[in-house]
Amino acid sequence: MKVLYCTSESKPFAATGGLAEVAGSLPQSLRLRLIGCRVVMPLYQDIPQELRDNMKFITSLSVPVAWRRQYCGVFEAKVGGVIYYLIDNQYYFKRRGLYGHYDDAERFAFLSRAALEMLPYIDFRPDVIHCNDWQTALVPIYYSIFYANNDWYKGIKTIITIHNIQYQGKYGKELVEDVLGIPKSKTSILEYDDCINILKGAIECANRVTTVSPTYAQEILDPWFSHDLDSILKERQWKVQGILNGIDTESYDPENDSDIFAPYSSKDMKGKAENKKGLQERLSLEQNPDLPLIGMVTRMVSHKGLDLVKEIFDQLMCETNAQFVILGSGDWEYENFFKEMQNKYPGRVCSCFGFVPELSRKIYAGSDIFLMPSMSEPCGLSQMIALRYGSIPVVRETGGLKDSIQDSGNGEGNGFTFKSYNSADMLYALHRAIEGYSNKEGWEILMKRAMECDFSWGHSANQYIRLYRQLIKEDN
Fold first, then answer.
1. Does residue 258 fall inside a structural domain?
2. Please, are residues 246 and 29 in contact by the beta-carbon 8 Å criterion?
3. Which of 81, 276, 281, 433 is the most exposed place for a label (fewest CB within 10 A)?
4. Strand, coil or helix: what is 242?
5. Same domain, 126 and 47
6. How far apart are CA 18 and CA 211, in angstroms?
7. Please, which pLDDT band fits residue 407 given cuts at 50, 70 and 90?
8. pLDDT, tens digit (0-9, with 9 covering 90-100), for 300-310
9. For residue 67, what are the domain limits?
10. Which CATH number does the domain housing residue 384 bear?
């Protein structure tokens, strides 16, 4: 079986979020299961030179972008045995940053068309083309319009995975012909809510639609979560499936992580205390092993639940002896709040701003409790990483958080959960976690159970393989 995995970002080349984690891990896991998975993505300016040095030029071709044709260079790189094709066009990709440019619609239209056009040139005919988010959502649309009846391409199946339905690729209708190159007769595929919506078009054209957790697949049928796409998804509910993401358990391994203060495992957790001591020292927190340390590694935006944290923060500090550390960046409102809290509670609160990978791992390893009170969370990786490092998650029951964290109130779960998006409910869950922490023997049992949870990519990869095989068997 052959799979082409289309993505706008992937580790180790270029990353802004969870999609890059998935694109860097899932193809590797598929390959280990004898699936011929190759990846296509842009050759961004931001890709480090040391990675560029290991690429080799394969071919060049001319790619249609509406009424014009554009140069496309195809470079090849191998990571962990997986072949990556990096699409070169300096006009579109020799810029700082992956997204947020005025012509993103045209840039990713080029990527999507290039992903299809290059296939005969590289002599790779996939059984399935697996696309991700709106940036590659034009692939199934282009395939259905221009390639489905071509003898060389005929029979290829397409999948679109929605990592976050909030981002849909919405643009004015004037782009349909002149920028995207969609014939006027096919405009209805993209039209939605008085604009064009690229993700909506992919939902219509792809053979299957997947999301990054089973609960999120159900949530996006609800207007509260769907960002106005619920009616389209309900009409095509038969093709929607949720598959929970995994994490790279080799990278996130406290027994072999060079970024943390001391190694440890579920069989020997002595190093966990050393990591807490090291984190407290580095962040100028009171060095007391008995104080529960709550950690957050997050984008500082409202849907991550920071409004709830703001509402109860003083109460949490007054009613408990907990310490609190947060790492992230985002809206000024939240950054300013946590700066104030650090000044208000010296030795108990530390606010760190920016993206600091080694510090994030030290927080996973050094914290006792990991807080994720998200308003919505399609999958979430941080709660799985926290489990891996023995930091017990406190989460709201939404999306992948609900699918991965079960409340330990019955003595069998791996964290603490609350249902309503309500600060009082979150505070109660934190109180339960802090009370649990005071029972050292019980907490050690909970930590061991958390660290032994299996969120490796194996299970997820097997589900994708079953989906691929099911699609291939279906009549063309």
1. no
2. yes
3. 81
4. strand
5. yes
6. 13
7. very high
8. 999 999 999 99
9. 2-246+458-473
10. 3.40.50.2000
